[in-house]
């Protein structure tokens, strides 16, 4: 059940990751559309800007011509007939200021035309910033989901390690039990062997010795071999003792 739940969680996280990736793709598409709109606006504005520049050049040429005429009027000496009354200085100043005003007018027109464009560019920049913020948020969400996945995987690994440790402990316990059983079997076998040896010694002590010194005969066959330390080893599978004298 735990593994099934973890698998379901992993599937849900994968679905969330796919959704986030789709959102990222949509945002990228929106960014591309905005960039295309900016390019279109610039392409549309380029002819307008060129027209404005041409107008400015024409105005500048006209202003230069006016300035030249005014300078000629001012610098030329008066005719020899009686001089007419001099024009007032205010009029001359106004005539000099007129070209400057004419120069400023196209600049003002340019500013008036460029202001909405600048506003549009600012709005587009704000939209781009918002989209970038959204992208950053989505990236943060992706990182959080990846961290959650890593935590879940770590938990799974820890559970697997715990299971492996439990299996190792069980194997060690089984090995210890087998060793104990082997030791008990060996001890039991050694105890029975020592008991059989004692019984053989007691039975051999009651038999009659053969004239051959060192053997107890069973139908003319050696049943026990005796050494000089009075240790006896059985050579027959049975424990029936019989001396050659008895035969």
TrEMBL record:
It is a multi-pass membrane protein. Keywords: Membrane, Transmembrane, Transmembrane helix. It is found in: Membrane. It comes from the Eukaryota. GO terms for cellular component: membrane. Residues 5-176 form the ABC transmembrane type-1 domain. Its main location: membrane. PROSITE patterns: ABC_TM1 (PS50928). One of its GO terms (biological process) is transmembrane transport. The chain crosses the membrane at residues 27-46, 53-78, 90-114, 121-154, 160-184. This is ABC transmembrane type-1 domain-containing protein. It comes from Dreissena polymorpha.
